[in-house]
Amino acid sequence: TLTFHQPEIAIVSNVTGQMVSGDEICTPEYWVRHVREAVRFVDGMRTLQDQGVSVFLELGPDGVLSAMGQDCVEDSVFAPALRKDRDEPKTLVTALAELYVRGSVVDWAAYFAGTGARRVDLPTYAFQHERYWPSAPLVQVGGSGGARSAIDAEFWDVVARGDVDTLARTLDVGETGAPSLASMLPALSQWHRNRSESLAVGSWRYRVSWTPVDDTPEPALTGVWVLAVPPGDTDQPLVEDCARSLRDHGATVVLLPVDGGPDDVTTIGDRLRETVDEHGSLSGVLSLLSFDERPHPVHSVLPSGSFAVLALLRAMTRLELESPLWCATRTAVSVRRSDVLARPVQAQTWGLGRVASLEHPKVWGGLVDLPGEVDARALKRLVAALAGTDGEDQLAVRGTGVFVRRVLPATPDGSAPARSWKPSGTALITGGTGALGGHVARWLAADGAEHVVLTSRRGDEASGVTELVAELEKLGSRVTVAACDVTDRTAVAGLLERLSAAGDTVRTVVHAAGVGRLAPLTVTDDDTFADIAVAKVAGARYLDELIDHDDLDAVIYFSSVSAVWGVGDHGAYAAANAYADALAEQRRAEGVPALSVAWGPWAGGGMVSEDAKILLDRQGVRLIQPASGIAALRQALEHDDTTVVIADVDWERFAPIFTMARARPLIADIPQVAAAIGDTAAEPAGGTDAAPALRAELMVMSEADRAQLLLDLVRGHAATVLGHASPKSVEAGRAFRELGFDSLTAVELRNRLNAATGLRLPATCVFDHPTPTALAGHLQAEVLQDAEGELPAGEELDRLEQVLAVRAHDDLGRMRVVMRLESLLSKLNEANGTTDRDSGAERYESATNEELFDLIDNDLGIS
């Protein structure tokens, strides 16, 4: 006979606060008392403490009891297994790790079963003797348990390797199963690769969304506002209505006609300078220049309005004006399906403006899109945007209200694709002989495109085209290489006519042509702007005009993230790609199968230089490998997207840098961004209690002690940011750049110093004051500004008293402060004619540490 002993778990009752038996709590009477009587949580916690319990694991949906428990008992560890709004596997593993390092037994072998994990020795640096813990991704143990996941992992590992024999043994089918397995294994392996890649690239997907915000009841403007308008439109009804609305809400309006000519930057600058001289300053500038869609007289494929906006911006930056520039467009965006995007040409201003907000954050105000019918209510909402919208700088005014632009994750989350897309017939690729075009061509050929047409300016003279053609033909496609400049409408029309005459109907268009030239907006003249923008804009427009939409299976525009959230030096490129995005939206609303993909940077021969790759990686932007990019493109087609952003971004690194100069509400609703910049958003502004307290402490110190305290503060926080064990690792006179600081760590140090001092330091303070000593000097000036010549207020003395109480253990520091106070008191007495106090206290300011310790010993009666 076998006897099994069920282990018992001790129970503490919330009714009595004492230990109870299982039989006792299994009665109706007990639970009646449980409902009616007080909860004795504190008594229960103390009972557990008396029993020697010092580690508590909370099993529940949040950490409420853990928070309460810390107020009930001391010297105990509380680890909640789950936390509200936090990743569940990560929270659970964190709790296990917390218990483990506190001495609890955790069966890590069971946790890591089937993952291939093994014990390794931690690396130790040979000279500094510091341990550096490598960071590794969290091992997810999900579903119905670790064992099940391990079995699945083992099976799919065999499939992914294509190991027929091992799979046959695993499935116990013996040798007779090998032939059938050999025939199906490639398909299984390919499915596994596609599925894994699809899950990976799914996390790179983002979409643009529009969120309604409340109307401002009575917006008000002040000062002088310049209203920039196209020449000859000053008496147009919409211009007059805008000017009247600005005046009605308190602004003085000055009209500024801008034609966007090559010499207009100087002319605009002169007019703005005259306005400033006459009125003293400008409250803001509102541009209606984007309304001018007339072809530019030289670069006719682009609108005059884009050049005028660029000229206005350049003139304002040349004058170093910090008045906000707001640019209005009209039906250039769509906030929902029923909202018609009618003017994609004006969307170029949106791409240009997003880059301007990065390059010139002090000049840039924002973007406002007006509806087709601009009535008094719409104009009032426009004024409200100009008056201030809590940092919102991308808005759309509609009859139903005001909407703000957001970028949100668009992960498929396991949803089934809307369709299975395959190419057929003829596929035309602009920029087809380039790196990106080549990757797309290989994919189309491998997926069944019968005929692939590769166009570029050089055609078959392009580098590597012979090898690419051979590769495509080997994949089963017929290939045509055509020298065709997509900026030449006649050339595009001729190519399409030749294809049609040969019976080749274009079913798929991929517009990947683009110019990889970059330039900051301040040096982007008209010719530079056109050189960069024309290829993308003209190609999209001419193909759209000349190809029969009814024959198309897909028209795909290769756009850029620069058009979605902006990238420095990409002003003209962003403007062109914003047009492609808008054109795709407009055509999709008309039933054309259009897709525009705003890509992050590609590896494998894209437009990214080696130096740019290093910089992007430091900023948290990873390059998209070609195979992954093609998988993401396939996913976008199968999910029937119209516009989608595909970028591999580490938001924890990218967001603090991206929001360094100003708030970016555009990305604020991405969960990883909210977590990354949450500390920055909550940091104390100037004027909080920290600054006066520090000021009070500094004012009673000698100059040398002030400098040393602040230097220690800077070095301490710098060491923490860099991961050093001691502030001694941060040399006081060495440049922050040489110490290893970059943009991200500079922001982190700035945030820490803001919290410690109560100041509002700029994100560039680490580079403006390049050494710890220099930065400490700047902190002293900022903290003590306006304090010279004033006696400390009573509140500052109260804070000083609190500081001294906290530092009571610091005998040396306390003695210095005491002597300093005695010196100050002596001076005050002398000023009042009182000399009975010991005026010799000043001599202690220069005492050595040994002398001070002797004084402390004497003061305490030790010697």
Polypeptide structure, described:
- It is a single chain.
- With 863 residues, this protein is an alpha/beta fold.
- It folds into five domains: 11-111, Malonyl-Coenzyme A Acyl Carrier Protein, domain 2 (3-Layer(aba) Sandwich), CATH 3.40.366; 211-407, Rossmann fold, CATH 3.40.50; 426-649, NAD(P)-binding Rossmann-like Domain (Rossmann fold); 672-794, Non-ribosomal Peptide Synthetase Peptidyl Carrier Protein, Chain A (Orthogonal Bundle); 807-863, no CATH class.
- It is 45% helix and 13% strand.
- The chain is built from 32 helices and 21 strands.
- The strands form four sheets. Strands 7-6-8-9-10-11-12-5-20-18-17-16-13-14-15 form a 15-stranded mixed sheet, sandwiched between helices. The chain has a two-stranded antiparallel ribbon with strand order 1-2.
- β1 and β2 (19-20) form a beta hairpin.
- α11 packs parallel to α12 and α17 (526-546) packs parallel to α18 (571-589).
- The longest helix is centred in the N-terminal third of the chain and has 25 residues, at 178-202.
- The radius of gyration is 34 Å and the shape is globular.
- Mean pLDDT is 83; it is low at 1-5, 135-148, 679-688, 835-845 and 855-863.
